[in-house]
Write a structure and sequence with these properties.
Largest sheet: 8 strands, antiparallel
Shape: elongated
CATH topology of the largest domain: Jelly Rolls
Number of domains: 3
Order of helices and strands: HEEEEEEEHEEEEEEEEEEEEHEEE
Number of strands: 22
Oligomer: single chain
Radius of gyration: 31 Å
Distance between the termini: 100 Å
CATH class of the largest domain: Mainly Beta
Helix content: under 10%
Structural class: mainly beta
């Protein structure tokens, strides 16, 4: 190659590299100087925090208001509110001591105003209230946890029970903002056992380990050889399109019962053949077009129970209020046609509906399917399992 061309190309590359190395990240607008400070209008102390209302300075280039604060656990956090807001909420304090927060006005050029310090004393933190509400009681095959979260505060609950060596092991984690909820851990023998829970928030705070020593109640799956599907007057016929009534309790999840078109709400009644304390019912949807959340698979349901033999005419007056009002829904919440691996695994394990512990012993279970996953007016459930303890 001609030497002068080599010098030319080398020089061009050096110029490009030099220009890249000199490029600086700068604000998209020129600074108009330090902004004025915000003016505090009102202060509302909250559980674990404070809500501040303010007035921004009369400056043209204000972008946001930023709060900077240090929590009880020593972690520093920032919260920002846009130019269009006039309030900011600060959370994460896990005590009722006095704290302070610094508020800054921030310009488009990322210039901060002088800080305005606001002192406040949070109300009782949500974690303390949740911890005080937790109860752990004996349940079928394990323990039932109950708690209240009146502030609807986002928390993670970590559930523990010992392994074979007696060391507490984490067995489940859930995220919840519900004002009141419960959860059961199952699969344990009726022997003394410790069950525990730790509640954490998104700010690095956590409760002490809350635990109880209890004896799980005995639980088994009711024997389907003793069961039969009754044909009450108001019940649907599940013998359409290859379906059979008996397939609802045949222990084969590839078979199904199928109601006729325009049959919703569609009910079926199971005679368990024995009287028992029912702990839970698990329903399985049919795998259709590679989905458990399609076509006539059940979605919204009600479950009733009865100890004495019902009238053949199927009169609903005998059944009282439903024990369960529930939904066979996917964990992801995604629309029909899009199922995650978690959605599939959830359906394969069955949709569980837990009975209150104070329900009387039952022999007859009646399920009403109110709606389907994608709207057809027929339904095709695959299987029903019933758990509890025989009381005959």
């Amino acid at each position: 190659m001609n030497t002068k061309y080599m010098f030319f190309i080398t020089g061009l590359l050096l110029a490009v590299l030099f220009s890249c190395s000199e490029k600086k990240l700068e604000p998209i607008t020129d600074s108009m100087g330090k902004p004025g400070t915000v003016s505090i209008i009102a202060k509302e102390e909250l559980p674990g925090g404070v809500r501040l209302k303010y007035k921004i300075p009369n400056t043209e280039d204000i972008l946001a208001v930023k709060a900077v604060y240090t929590l009880s656990n020593g972690r520093t956090y920032e919260e920002s509110a846009s130019f269009y807001e006039n309030k900011i909420t600060i959370l994460g304090f896990n005590d009722v001591n006095e704290h302070s927060v610094n508020l800054y006005a921030v310009s488009y050029a990322q210039v901060y105003s002088d800080p305005v310090e606001v002192k406040f004393t949070p109300l009782e933190p949500p974690l303390a209230k949740i911890a005080r509400s937790v109860s752990i009681i004996s349940d079928f095959g394990g323990a039932q946890y109950r708690w209240e979260n009146e502030d609807k505060y986002p928390v993670n609950l970590e559930f523990f029970t010992p392994d074979s060596t007696g060391v507490l092991q984490l067995v489940r984690i859930i995220t919840s903002e519900l004002p009141a909820a419960n959860l059961s851990l199952r699969g344990y023998k009726p022997d003394p056992r410790t069950f525990a829970v730790v509640v954490r928030d998104n700010y690095g705070n956590m409760t002490d380990t809350l635990k109880e020593n209890i004896i799980p109640m005995f639980e088994e799956r009711f024997n389907k050889r003793s069961m039969s599907v009754m044909k009450l007057g108001d019940d649907a016929n599940f013998t359409n399109w290859e379906g059979m009534d008996a397939y609802l309790i045949d222990d084969d999840k590839t078979t199904f019962g199928h109601s006729p078109a325009n049959s919703l709400p569609a009910s079926f009644t199971i005679d368990m053949g024995v009287t028992g304390q029912v702990s839970r019912i698990v329903m399985f949807n049919r795998l259709f077009n590679d989905s458990y959340y399609s076509w006539g698979n059940p979605k919204d349901i009600k479950i009733y129970g009865k100890k004495d033999r019902p009238s053949q005419n199927g009169s609903w007056d005998e059944w009282g209020e439903p024990i369960i009002v529930g939904q066979l829904s996917k964990p992801s919440g995604l629309p029909s046609g899009t199922d995650t691996d978690e959605d599939k695994a959830y359906a394969e394990a069955g949709f569980e509906f837990v009975f209150p512990l104070d329900v009387e012993p039952l022999r007859y279970i009646r399920v009403v399917i109110l709606s389907t996953q994608t709207g057809p007016t027929y339904t095709h459930p695959a299987e029903v399992d019933i758990f509890g303890e025989v009381k005959n």
